[in-house]
Write a structure and sequence with these properties.
With about 170 residues, the protein is mostly helical. The protein has five helices and no strands. The longest helix is centred in the last third of the chain and has 36 residues, at about 130-165.
Length: about 170
């Protein structure tokens, strides 16, 4: 790979890291705060049934949001380091695809670790406990669909970018 081609390559890691951060923000803002289906530690001995438990969960939700903020900042740094170089043309599918891949990876990792392995919370704890598994599996399937769809878009975007680069 020549230096020129490498300098013009889309920063895949930037899109994936941005997607990880956006996936975390979606989870924290929509599921924790707006819908209040769960918090970080609601199934780890701190159900949202008392002010003290809500305080503990709020702090841990804050640490969670701080980590997603770091993913966004890192993704922007990675994107900026490549984008400020010589003139570039990237298919929008590259950005959308890699963000979807990162978002899907977030759901898969968070769903497997926090929901299944550690059991510190589940997607929707407002439904009967016997139904939690269905919400957790839906979250994993949603993540897998985003990862797969993102991969398809990414591959298509790479082909578009290659054709455009070759035609110059």
């Amino acid at each position: 790979m020549t230096s020129n081609k490498k300098d013009r390559a889309f920063p895949t890691s930037a899109g994936i890291v941005l997607g990880l951060g956006l996936g975390g923000f979606f989870d924290g803002i929509v599921l924790h705060q707006i819908l209040q289906w769960h918090h970080m530690l609601t199934s780890a001995g701190y159900p949202a049934t008392s002010i003290e438990n809500l305080k503990i969960n709020t702090v841990w939700d804050g640490f969670f949001h701080a980590s997603t903020y770091l993913f966004i900042a890192l993704g922007l740094v990675l994107l900026w380091r490549t984008a400020h170089r010589s003139h570039l043309w990237w298919s929008a599918k590259l950005m959308v695809g890699t963000v979807l891949m990162g978002f899907g990876l977030f759901n898969l990792v968070e769903g497997l670790i926090d929901h299944q392995l550690l059991g510190i919370h589940h997607v929707n704890e407002t439904v009967p406990v016997a139904q939690w598994v269905y919400w957790d599996m839906g979250f994993l399937l949603w993540g897998a669909a985003m990862l797969g769809g993102g991969w398809v878009l990414y591959r298509s975007g790479r082909r578009e970018s290659s054709r455009r680069t070759l035609s110059r």
